[in-house]
Design brief:
It is built from 6 helices and 4 strands; from the N terminus they run αββααααββα. The chain is of the alpha+beta class. Zinc ion binds next to strand 4.
């Protein structure tokens, strides 16, 4: 089970999971089932990581607002059907998420495989309009690294935005 699965199970049980520092805060209208609490407890560290990454300095509401605003613009000003407008807005949010969740390579090591041997190159990523970030990667690791980051961004945003 991934942290995302655990949060989804909690949400299906009517529990809202948010983060306060290093603690998970649960809000529910009715007493949550014990097995759901146990699932959350077992996956706590991963959930905290995910929510922290998902926030990326923005509050969850900010992400939803940003997404709605962009989807609205694409729909009404861009003339796209709602579904396509949402896909476009989602892609924009993925880019922003990657920007706001920048990572650094540990000194002299590949950000993907962690090894320092071989030829490492600097890769910049993120939206160049803002401060872009740089990581060190092997050429052969760069594709997998970018893909992994993108998947993480999409997983986090799907949770935040409740899209599927
Ligand atoms: Zn590597």
């Amino acid at each position: 089970m991934t942290a995302a699965d655990a949060i989804r199970i909690a949400e299906n049980a009517g529990i809202q999971v948010t983060l306060d520092g290093d603690s998970l805060v649960l809000a529910a209208a009715v007493k949550p089932p014990a097995e759901v609490i146990e699932i959350l407890a077992l996956n706590k560290a991963a959930i905290v990581d995910l929510l922290r990454g998902a926030n990326g300095g923005f509050a969850i509401e900010d992400w939803r607002e940003l997404f709605d605003e962009r989807a609205g613009i694409a729909e009404f000003e861009g003339g796209l059907p709602r579904e396509q407008a949402e896909v476009q807005a989602f892609c924009h949010c993925v880019e922003d998420w990657l920007d706001s969740n920048s990572v650094r390579s540990s000194a002299g090591c590949c950000a993907f495989c962690g090894r320092s041997q071989g030829q490492l190159r600097e890769y910049s990523y993120g939206n160049s309009a803002r401060a872009s970030s740089e990581v060190l990667l092997h050429h052969e690791c760069s594709r997998a690294w970018h893909q992994q980051r993108e998947e993480k961004a999409m997983e986090a945003l799907k949770l935040l935005l409740h899209t599927h």
